[in-house]
Amino acid sequence: MNVVIVGAGPAGLAAAEHALWAGAQVTVLDQAETPGGQYHRMLPDAYAAKRPERVQHGRAEFDRRRRVLAHPRCHWWPGSAVWAFDRAEKAVHILRGQSDGGGRRRLTLVPDALILATGAHDRTLPFPGWELPGVYTAGAAQALAKGERVAIGERVLVAGAGPFLLPVAESLLGVGAEVVGVLEANPFSTVRKGWSSRPWRLAAHAGKAGELARYATTLARHRIPYRLGRAVIEARGVDRVREVVTARVRADWSVVPGTERTYEVDAVCVGHGFVPQPELAVAAGCVLDDGFVRVDAAQRTTVDDVFAAGEITGIGGAVTAAAEGAVAGCVAAGGEPSPELIRARDRALAFADRLATAHPIGAAWRSWLSEDTIVCRCEETTYGELTRAAEDTVCPGPHALKLGTRAGLGPCQGRICGPTVSELRGGTERHHRPIVQPIRLGELAARTEGEPG
Amino acid sequence: MSGWLLPRDRDPVGRTDRPIRITVDGEPVTGIAGQSVAGMLLAAGWTSWRTTRSGAPRGVFCGIGACFDCLLTVNDVPDVRACRRPAADGDEIRTQSREENA
Question: Is the ipTM of this complex over 0.85?
């Protein structure tokens, strides 16, 4: 069996480990130069860090996990952008070389089984001024702090929804930024209800309680307020953010008038959970449910010999992703997953449900928007333009909306605004990105340079 | 004030800094080997290096390659995501506008 795994984060590495145990030949591809994905983001090799474990969460586990890449039956291909999947030939098309570089090598692989572990990126809801430089996703702040030791600013506000905001604040403190506050939009009652029901089901995530306690201590030590039921509703500045406006919000995230507060900051990072990166699964013809790849109990997608694991099947964090990857790797390699492996995966999945219940997106967030608030960052399509186009009975449907307003037609191809535009018009997101990764026309026209050695 | 690179002597990870130098629109910018182009520019005080169709400034937003806000030109190759591209000593970076590449 020849198994190709796309993504070297927790899901992809666990998949590789278990596919190797089941006897397969494995190739692991990742766009990055180093394995780990976003969760186990590594410092650059050039930093020659003596104590990388000081910033890398779960370093011992990661060191153990990444050793699979050195297995004699494992091929590790960093710097590999998978840009297409040919359904007829079951071929995976890859460009290998410098990120977005001109001289990348074009290669194809035709595996017996394909495991997609492509992960997710931040969801950030729009608000007036969110397009200003100095407004970052929570993930950007984390990637720069943890991956490069760069602080995005001197005075930073962290806001949005979900437990991820806490490690982001910790990382910012770790690179010397002043964190003026951490704001969770959901009220205490929602968060408590989500996390405290059926606590025994959190057994798979025992480490999480300790982790939360550590964040709480860190915030307290630095006297950083952690407020629930409060959101960033506006960023202000001319060429870059200078101040942000926050407000108390109700359980549905509607603003409580008169509770606005202004903070002077030079950076703000905002994250409202995550959205999956399903482009390859879509290219392979996999069925999606609500944007996530549909999988069965063996992590099979709806397409033969294509498996999916991790955040593209549901947002559940690294433990869940690894548990899913383990099952996917085993089955893809023709093995039979042990009952323990299945149980571990099922227990981990309960965490994903809980996360969604404790940190939902309140439907009234759109009350933050004004007519001229930008929704599509690339094409600068405003909320007003979108509302008017959506109400136009002459040109109904998402296709007309896209052509009429240009939302989603810019460089990111709707990766950032897609879920928001769909939500605003009351539909489900449609994915049409036949080219999974950007590729230059010259690269597309070039003959395949040969099969990988 | 904006972004910066945590000084080596304050960084508990125990880095070894190897200085590198690039130019941005001809202006020299220094950083250390291993930094992304975006990280180097942020640490040098830049917050934006691209303009949109309307001329509005953009820099880093998502930091992991999803948003394409941080596009710039590296050694004459346009549309490189600054957050995904490790900087190399001597790189010649140019800021971009949408009109230029339309």
Answer: yes
